[in-house]
Every structure is written in C-alpha cells, then in structure tokens.
Amino acid sequence: MSVFYSKNNDFAYKDISLTGGTSVTIYDKVDILNLEKFLGENLEDVNIREVYDLVTREQIALIIETKSDENDAKKYLKNF
After folding, report:
1. Domain 16-79 grouped into CATH 3.30.70
2. pLDDT tens sequence across 15-66
3. DSSP secondary-structure letter at 69?
4. Cα angle: 47, vertex 18, 52; to 5 degrees
5. Are the beta carbons of 77 and 55 closer than 8 angstroms?
6. Which DSSP state fits 58?
7. Are 67 and 19 in contact (CB under 8 A)?
8. pTM of this structure
9. d(Cα 65, Cα 14) in Å, to the nearest integer?
C-alpha cells in the first residue's frame, strides 16, 4: 500500500469521474494503437477503451478519457 501511495499520491486510483477531465466517445473504426501513441504524446494521462460487438467482435466505438481539458482533447482528436 505504501508503494502505491508513493507512486500515485493517494491510497486509491481515481479516474476522471473523481479527478476531473474529459471523456470523448468516437463512433467510428479507428486504429487504437496509433491513436493511443498520438494522444499519449499530446494529452495528459490518456486511457482508451474499445467498445465492440459481442457477436462479431467488430469495433463499434472508442472511449477516450484524459485529464486534459476539453479544448485540448478536441484539438488533438481533430488533428488525428
């Protein structure tokens, strides 16, 4: 527990719903690896989750969460 605290400055991990930030959902097929690399270089603390169809395993959407503000997130997503 002390190792976690020294690394994260808290006793529990808090996502953007508790710390504040931006969540964006993209309803399109996107190369998640390239997007993750691009946003990781430009935005703060990026987390990307893939939403897919359970039967076909086809990508339906991506949910992008970041501690960066909305304007920065929009700017970099438009440039991708």
Report:
1. yes
2. 565 566 889 999 999 999 999 999 999 998 899 999 999 999 999 999 999 9
3. -
4. 35
5. no
6. -
7. yes
8. 0.72
9. 12
